[in-house]
Structures are given as C-alpha cells and as structure tokens.
C-alpha cells in the first residue's frame, strides 16, 4: 500500500519536473499509459493513478479518446518556486533564518539552530502519533482551549516544582512556539519606541522580532558568567527599558551559563527598577547539571519564564510556553485569542505530553547529552587546528561561539561559503553593536561532514 | 497495552481528583498498593504504575519503607484551574471566544463558530496521522520552510486555478492559522492609529485582532448582497483606510453572499483609492455553487486572499494561508520568521495535504452540505415558532443571523443563558456600531439539543 503510494508520487514528480523544466509545455500530449509505464519501469496501474491525481490537481487534463495533455499556467517553473530565498540580500538575522530553513537537504548548515533529524526522538514521536490516530475525535479536530491542554501545563508545573518553582497550571500559557511566546509578551508589555534590552551577542531572532515591533534595542555586553551586571545596571538607569530578554542556561550563541552572583545582581536591579526579565529556557533539557534560574530564585514577580520543545523533542510538533504572574497570563490569553484564536493545537500538545511521559524521552536525552559531549570535543579540536578557538567552552548544548584568526571577517566567510553549499551564522547577526565580526557560531551537531572544515581551511589560507 | 494505559490514567486521575478536592492534602499518606488496588478494583501492577508516574510528575513522593505521600503545592485545587474563563467580564468578542473555547463538554454552544467533533472528517485524519507516524523523520521533527510545504501550496494553487485564479505557489504563504494570516497582514501593512474597514456586522474576532493592533475600526453597513457599496465608497473617501477585511462567500455572521454587482463596485472603489481588500475565504468549501470571489475577478492586485482548513477539515490540525502579490509575500515571510520562526508545522501541512488528496474529503464535504441543509431548515423552523427569524436565509454554511422579537436584548439573553449552561453569540459582539442588540448568531450544527430552544422559550416569555 505504502510502496504503491511512493511509486505514484515518484511518477507524478517526474511529470512535474518535465513541466517545470519546460520539457513538457502547456498543450503537450503526455505519453500513453503503456508507453510511460515502459519508460518509467512502472506498472500501468501506477501510471493511471499518477495521471488521475495530476488531473485532480489541475496539472494535466484528459481529452475524450485522445489521452492526457499538460494544462496551462498551473505550475510555475521550479526556479521561480525556489526563488523565495534571496541569496543576495544583506547578511542580517533574516538571512541566516531563511537560508537555514529553506536550503535543500544537500546543503550543510553549521550555522543553523537545531539538531539533525536523526538526533531527534523520532521513534517516540511515531508512537505518540499512532496513539493520537486511534485517540479521541476532539483531539483530532477541535480547537484548543485558550490556555492550551491542562495535561501539558501540569507536566510543566511538575517539572518547575522539581526545580523549586511552585506555581499552578493557570500561571502557564501554552503558545504556538517559543518565538510566539516572546512575541505575545512584547505585544502585551511593549509599545513602539519603547526600549528592550538583549544580550550582546544574543539569539539573532530576538533582534528580528523586536525590529518587527519597532522597538529600540539596546545590548548588554555578555560575559562568560552572564551579562555584565554593572553595565546592566547603568543601562537600566539610562534607558529605562521595559523588558530584558535573555537565556540563563546555555546562552545562545555563546553556550555560557549564568553564575549565581550574576543572577542575584540581575534580579536586584530588576526589582529596584521594575524591569521585567524574560528568561528563555529553551536549552534547559540539554544541561548536565542545572544552573541558576532567575525564575526559580525569584519566583515570577519580575521574571517571565518561557521555553519550548523545538530543540529537544520536535520543531515540527511545535509548542511554546509562558510561565508568568496570573495578571500577565490573563492579558496574554486575550492576546493569543485575538491573534491566533485559541491555544496551540490539541494534537500537538497531546503528542508532546505523550513523549514527555513516555519514559523513553529521559533515556533519549541522556544519550543526546553523551553524543553532544563527544561532538563538542571533536569540533573544538578540528576548529583549533584551523586557528579558530571557542570564546568559552560550554558545559553542555550544541553551540560553540568561536573567534577567527586575526583580520578574518566572518560575514565575508559566510557569504563565500554559500558557493560551497555551506550556511554559516556569522557573529554580527547576533550582535546589536555589530562588534562580533571575528566571531562565528557553530552548531556542533551539524559539523559531522568534513566539508565544513575543508571549506573553512580554504577560506582561511 | 492501550487498556493498561487507560486504567493507569484513570487511577492517576482519581488521585489527582482527591488532591484537588482536598480529600488528600500535602503530607497525607496514600493507601498502600494492595489496599488501593482493592478500592479501585484494579490490579496491583496498575496501581504501582500510576504511583510511579505521579512520582515522576512530582505530585506524590515515596519515602523509603513507608509508602507514598502527597507532595506540597504541586497541584492547585481544580476550582483555580478552571478560573481562566471569567464569566463576569463584559460581553465582548473575548467573552464569546473564551466561553466557547474553554467551556466544558456538557455546555451547549449555539454561539460557537465550529462544527461538532462528530461532523469532522476524523477517519481521514486518523489515516493521515498513521501515514505521518510511519513517514519520514524530517516531517516529524524538523522546522518547516519559511513559506510552508510546497505540496500544500501546490494543492491550493491548483484549486485556485480551477476557479480561474492562476498564481504560482510562491504567491502563497502558509501560516499558523487563518487568524494568524490576518494578523501578519495587519503587521505588514497597518500602523497604530491607521484605519481599517470591516463589515457591520462582521466576525467578532476581526475586531479583537484590530484592537490588539490599536487600529481605528470603521464599520461598513452590510446588506444581503454584501457591503453597502455607496457607503463603502463614501467611507473610503472620508477615512482613507489602509485595508478592508471581509468574507465574500457565506459571510460571518450573516451567511449572506456577495453579488457580482457588489463585487465589481467594491473592486472599482479599491482600485481607484488604493485600498487593499483582505478576502477571508474560510467558508468556501461549504458553498453548493461557487459565488463571486474578489480575488478571482480582479487577481491579486488589490486583493489578498486568505483562508484556512479549521472549519471543514480540523481546527486542531491548524493552518492558514495567504495568497497575495509576490512583493507582499516577501514581506510576510520575514514577518513570520521574526514572529514564529518559520512556516507552519510540517506534520500539520502533511496531514492536511493527505486528507485533501485522499479522495474521501470530497465525499465527506458533500455529506456535510447535505446535513447542513437539513439542519438549517430544522433550526429556522424551530426558531420561527419562538418568533425569532433569520435576517436572510443563507444558501449554505452553518450560521443563521436572526432577529429577536421586539424589545428583546440578545446580550441580556446570552448572559441569562449561562445559568442554563448555554453559550450564545449576541449580535453586538459582531457590530462595530453596537446596533445589533436584537440579533443573535446561531450555529445550526450546535442546536441539535432541544435544551437550546427550551431555554430560549423560557427567556422570551
């Protein structure tokens, strides 16, 4: 059954390809069933099925008694379809995102922010989808509640409770993704022209997001133990920001971890000035030993905790969360209703809860952490032979924030690497002050192909 | 295997319930395995499993040699969990959304905007999820491309082509939902303080969404053949709006359909003034015969077409789309990257494409249309015996926009119906001018329970 589907799809793709490359144009007659079955080494019934489905799609049409013909203008040439990723645009946060998200599978992506498919818990996901497939109809087709499934919110609060943060599930709002969590928070709390602080360097999409809100972005210099707290205090006094967005554990892009002293000072400044801290905890599950968390130290008075399952569980089964004061959650619910009509998909939240509860997830993450440790070491060694060295050696996770030898510009290297079909994340897309031109963020899990290092070697000599 | 899971979950739920109702409080010892197995008529191994999972969740803890105890503050009482839906707030668009989305299954919802679970194509969805469960790993765990799956975009452009709108798949952007489609468009094209036109009455969440953008909302009086075109022209000249958001086919809430004359006049005014029209086509698949479409008549010069699969296929498998000029799509892609990081979930788009291509979907929709026709007639008859009459008799779909007998206020009726566990959608939540206090929108598919009519009868006498 499945093989038949695959064969039919292959035939359909072959015909689409011919139309896309103009080997077949509008009005052309397709080969006869028998003829095409021979050419494609397929059974006539497969060809019939492929033709029928292309008719249903409006790509071809049948004319009584005279076979099948290519219809007009139904499909654009493939070159047009692929034109969505402008290679020529400025190397900004969007450049990295769009290159990484839209590149074809032959492209290497040491610059991307996720694990390769075969590192993900796909067997657990398959099992969870089978369970959903035979589960209740309302999970399959109904809207989600405005806050998202109670089952998953309970799992989160239990996890928080283990860390020492005791909150109730109604202080947790499930969102479409971690990015949408930050977006909703900005919509609720910040207005155009307000100031928001981020780390310098920080996750590049924070900048893209804040720019979409037309918010003034100010960077706080980042050290190997978290943001520079003196600079933070000074900037808070000067700029009167509404929010400060940061990662506590396994900071993106540096992989650094907040020290308890830094955490305490940040919280003191926040409490004194009324700044709210958005603590993005998306890399939490990669930690070997848990590091200080602002939300755990302080509670949720001046901290909003967000996270998602995209890095560890699945980025296709997408869902994020916000843990915050009840008054903020109330406002966020209304905003999510207005802009998404309800919480995230019941199917998605059910699958995530199934995987988290399934028992194999913990084992999977242990294995991932073991692989990551090995992978980080290997990549550090290989980069160091090229004179590229990590700014700090992260305790866990998959990022390395590395400095290039003197005089090398990472944006220039990223642009030249396109020709080698390699997508890098150059330092300045992470830096508000544009002061990271000699840095590059490497994702160690995406560096398994030797071409990454061979290409860098060529660039550097 | 599955039964075992169900039994374990039932035991867990029973314990949670006891904690929630304070029958068991923090520090209490749980019954012994043997004792509780007897009480629950379950096997000891089921109890062991349930206790183990509750330990993993942090709800209970085991103490060496002395059994299991309830942990502190891990779970709030259920009354708190349910407190998310404030019954006492103003009857505004959020009131209807939150009441409908969050009410428990015993509540009747003639005011909601979707079909009951058993009207949805759940068998086709189950099949599609089984296919996904045995499909490629990248569908299960990778991020989606920035525009969303080409396969689904191709299905959409083929469908458009059948209607006479020939565009290429790179003029289609898949989004998280229909609501997110409107939201992205507003983010791209409208700034705070700008004016946007909607129909009066219109889908209530358009107002909630525009308010979230702090946009000035102006209503265009709606007639049984579409918006009043003279009023539209006058308001466009006066207000210089950036956008006009409307439904062409099966307008929400009235169920009315645009006439070709109205469509032509709207497009002429739009072309002369530069106003962009957002045509929300979410109810398209319910039509018996296709009615005029602005995007088909004009192309995508002044029209942006949006839609989703939430009403006909699944609201859990959520996905929307935007068809627009290529220059607008480019801007929308960046915005979606910034605010959602990538397009909708590959799992979701794969399931939708599978269902649409699966063959059973067309048959399902034919059956739904047949059921709807019958249902509309029955509900109209029952409402008319109460003196409640439809403003227009829709050609298709599931909405009836009805006028109450003289002097009856539908907001008042909606509030009083809460005591009968019935959620209504009173006229004024749809009306910018608040001039629809004698109207109510009924969803005929949610009126199968006689209590809806008995309750209304009591209210009206």
TrEMBL record, chains A, B:
<dbReference type="InterPro" id="IPR015421">
    <property type="entry name" value="PyrdxlP-dep_Trfase_major"/>
</dbReference>
<keyword id="KW-0238">DNA-binding</keyword>
<feature type="domain" description="HTH gntR-type">
    <location>
        <begin position="5"/>
        <end position="73"/>
    </location>
</feature>
<dbReference type="InterPro" id="IPR036388">
    <property type="entry name" value="WH-like_DNA-bd_sf"/>
</dbReference>
<dbReference type="Pfam" id="PF00392">
    <property type="entry name" value="GntR"/>
</dbReference>
<dbReference type="Pfam" id="PF00155">
    <property type="entry name" value="Aminotran_1_2"/>
</dbReference>
<dbReference type="InterPro" id="IPR000524">
    <property type="entry name" value="Tscrpt_reg_HTH_GntR"/>
</dbReference>
<dbReference type="InterPro" id="IPR051446">
    <property type="entry name" value="HTH_trans_reg/aminotransferase"/>
</dbReference>
<keyword id="KW-0663">Pyridoxal phosphate</keyword>
<dbReference type="GO" id="GO:0003677">
    <property type="term" value="F:DNA binding"/>
</dbReference>
<keyword id="KW-0804">Transcription</keyword>
<comment type="similarity">
    <text>In the C-terminal section; belongs to the class-I pyridoxal-phosphate-dependent aminotransferase family.</text>
</comment>
<dbReference type="GO" id="GO:0030170">
    <property type="term" value="F:pyridoxal phosphate binding"/>
</dbReference>
<dbReference type="InterPro" id="IPR015424">
    <property type="entry name" value="PyrdxlP-dep_Trfase"/>
</dbReference>
<dbReference type="InterPro" id="IPR004839">
    <property type="entry name" value="Aminotransferase_I/II_large"/>
</dbReference>
<dbReference type="InterPro" id="IPR036390">
    <property type="entry name" value="WH_DNA-bd_sf"/>
</dbReference>
<dbReference type="GO" id="GO:0003700">
    <property type="term" value="F:DNA-binding transcription factor activity"/>
</dbReference>
<protein>
    <submittedName>
        <fullName>Transcriptional regulator</fullName>
    </submittedName>
</protein>
<keyword id="KW-0805">Transcription regulation</keyword>
